[in-house]
Specification:
Elements lengths: L2 H9 L2 H9 L3 H11 L1 H10 L7 H13 L19 H20 L10 H4 L4 H4 L7 H9 L4 H12 L4 H7 L4 H21 L4
Helix pairs in contact: 4-5, 9-10, 10-12
Length: 200
């Protein structure tokens, strides 16, 4: 990337970048997605399954996904981005989730998007939050979006810190029966936060 291009794209806020991409500004779209975020896409391409033949194809696929109205809601995912985390973190989670969905379809595994809320609560730790894709600062921002403090603590201890169910219950002074009930509700609330951000 040329130095003047780098200075320009770095001078834009996430809000300005999102608005430019939504307005189909080819210059900003190229600088941000295809150049500035190229290392992010390369990392995902090298680490996760995708049916794309190249990193550029993965960027193209992601661009189409974030710009096409959802079949369910009719909303454009990028327009639905709520700025509670960084745009780069949001894009990374979108890419990883899409790669995961593609892999599950290939392996004939149930797609998370088709699970009921009660079934989704039974997802194991690694499937629920892939800590490799989440920056701690951005996770903190997302956790702060959860209205219930106890639910935030459950998600932090269990999935961010990687503690067991028993350790989490003990830290929170809860019986296991109470913990499992609150754990289910905490996962639903976390999933709703991600859904509001267009991350699932």
């Amino acid at each position: 990337m040329r130095l003047e291009d780098l200075k320009y794209i770095n001078s834009l806020s996430d809000q300005e970048v999102v608005q430019a991409i939504l307005n189909k500004d080819a210059y900003v779209t190229r600088l941000y997605l295809y150049e500035k975020c190229y290392p992010l896409f390369k990392s995902c391409f090298n680490k996760f399954y995708t049916d794309c033949d190249s990193i550029i194809e993965l960027v193209n696929d992601t661009y189409l996904y974030i710009m096409m109205p959802s079949e369910e809601t009719g909303k454009i995912p990028l327009a639905n981005f709520g700025f509670r985390c960084s745009l780069a973190m949001w894009l990374k989670i979108i890419v990883v989730n899409r790669c995961t969905q593609l892999y599950k379809r290939k392996m004939n595994v149930v797609d998370l998007d088709n699970l009921s809320d009660s079934d989704r609560c039974n997802i194991d730790n690694d499937s629920f939050i892939n800590r490799d894709t989440l920056d701690n600062r951005d996770v903190d921002k997302l956790l702060k979006s959860m209205p219930n403090q106890r639910y935030r603590d459950i998600i932090r201890y269990r999935y961010v810190d990687g503690r067991s169910n028993e350790e989490t219950a003990e830290l929170l002074g809860m019986t296991m029966d109470n913990y499992y009930n609150k754990h289910r509700l905490a996962k639903l609330q976390w999933h709703n936060v991600l859904r509001k951000e267009g991350l699932v």
